[in-house]
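Good morning,

Both structures are done.
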Amino acid sequence: MNARTRARWIEEWDPEDEGFWRREGEGIARRNLVFSILSEHVGFSVWTLWSVLVLFMGPEYGIDPAGKFFLVAMATLVGAFVRVPYTFAVARFGGRNWTVFAAAMLLVPAGAAFAVMEPGTSYSTFMLVAMVTGVGGGNFASSMTNINAFYPLRRKGWALGLNAGGGNIGVPVVQLAALAVIGASGGPRVLLGGYLALIVVSAVCAWLFMDNLAPVRNDTGAAKESVRDPHTWIMAFLYIGTFGSFIGYSFAFGLVLQTQFGRTPLQAASITFIGPLLGSLIRPFGGRLADRFGGARITFWNFLGMAAATAVIVTASVAESLPLFTSAFIVLFVLTGLGNGSTYKMIPGIFHSKALARGLSGEEAAAYGRRLSGASMGLIGAVGAVGGLGINLAFRQSFQTAGTGTGAFVAFLAFYGVCLAVTWAVYLRRPAPAASSAPASVAPAHQPDYARV
């Protein structure tokens, strides 16, 4: 292969060159995408293990609903923080090498959970093991940063959507697996044993079939520049609204059904997986719609839909209508997945637009966009995941004080309204033309058109 000059390292990589892309780039990128999805998929399953392990924890475990919400919140918190170092590890060690390591690391939390999941284990031990499962959340950041470097700008929305959607689907898969185990009257160790084997498979596949990109080097300048750029933090805020909602609800949905509506573990597990499944499957289409119509437009309308679905959930919660509550919650899950795809597509588009505004063009502009978007993705993904922590803490507080999740949903509704306003104000509102004698044709060189990102 011409692109490869030493084992498992690719020395030259230019996906924006259409000839190179057709000749060999697309096939290499697709192969790396497939096994990146596998590794990220298992990472998400391990990260969200406690969303199903708490369903096995009956009265004999001596943990109340607030304590269970806190367990899943700690897994979310650690998963958010490890995303930052995982992002930069790709450039330091190579995408393939880090994927192998990150996949193998999942043996630690899965093995620890296998050892401690039994009545009589102390709450502090459960808390420590739940926190360790957070390493599974880091796989998303390294995987997305790695795949972002493999694909040209015109294909990033779909590729990143597939990568993230395939990873996100690890959430409903582990929930379906738990449903099967509970339905067969099996214990949590049956579930964990299956995942220990799957972790080994994902690590071996990454070792055998993935590649490192030599041109992707650690760039502390890019990291510092992305931290200083306000768009990094604006997009992180919007990603709290989309991905933070997805992962937070994924952890909490089963517990809400048990605590507020009195569902048994089997009844809760039989419903819990549906929302994350649909939200994961639709994520690539959120990216594809963003490729076609612009991520900002799709994100705006998506937040409007999320606000409407949340308003229905509040109504259903007050009326104690389980069918309406469940239906609206599943719709909200679908919208979080769609928004995940559109917001992540916006990131490379924003930095590419900034490159054009600086007067860059062609490969120079594309390289600038890849450099800054790759550096910012980990930060955005980390902050977005913190939203999942906020959702679980909001539920914990709401159930502690009122015995219902209604108050938390009202807070979420207000937050989606703010996200809607920010998306419109920053990326869709057309600025008033400046009073200048300069010809209009030069304006794009100084003012990026973010409506198309």
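Second structure follows.
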Amino acid sequence: MRFIDEHRDRFGGVEPICRVLTAHDCQIAPSTYYAFKKRQTAPSARSRRDAELKELIREVFESNFRVYGARKVWHELNRQNHSVARCTVERLMRELGIASAVRGKRVITTLADASAERAPDLVDRDFVAAAPNRCWVADFTHVKTWSGVVYIAFVVDTFSRRIVGWSAAKTKETRLVLDAIDMALWQHDRDQLPYEKGALIHHSDAGSQYTSFALAEHLQQAGIAASIGSVGDAYDNALMESTIGLFKTELIKLGRPWRTLSQVELATAEWVDWYCHRRLYGEIGHIPPVEYELSYYREATKPQVTVTT
């Protein structure tokens, strides 16, 4: 093949050379030469497969706030029935130059009121709930905008990691955290999945907003037990800290600069919808929180079969 490549122009093309070589007991047909050249120039099966997977990987990455790493991209591709090895996803993501978002440092926003009466700690770091609406954890964070600081409060169900309520405001008054709770209550009424009064705990840190009389009264009227964690314990409300960390990493850091309260509110609404309905969460089996809850309710409402002998 190399000989033909070197002399084809001198001897009038491929066919004359093949005839001479064949006449001297070196049999080769022009079709053999052309087939070889086609194989040399055509992309391999692996190259074609890599190109297809790169498009799928890029689509998953772009449609999930550009924050997924190889593990979540791999799980999402398999959920879409694209069978691919995790190491292949890692290799192709390196070739594409894309990587997961990296979390920053935690910023403390809540300040304790030493004079306020605090509710007992009913959770004691046990954030594993047996069902939805058994334990909600709450906290808030802040975002710097051109028009001033915006505060965002969240309420998360520890069973599914679902954000059941949130609110945003320009001040961190008690109304901020009350609005987040009210959204959580409204959403459960809307979905016809009411909580059992007396069976739900609202857990938070000892910030003044969460030790206020207004919040205690609000929870009591709703039939929700108040719980306050220990002061100065970084692990006491770890699940809520993790959620806020994801919010800052996956949305706030990627959306700079932020201009107004309304811009932050709109972006937060979009992120929360994605987080609850589409984001894969490793601690619940790499499925979205809402899907995890629906699976629980389907199992809970299955008719019980009694076997008699």
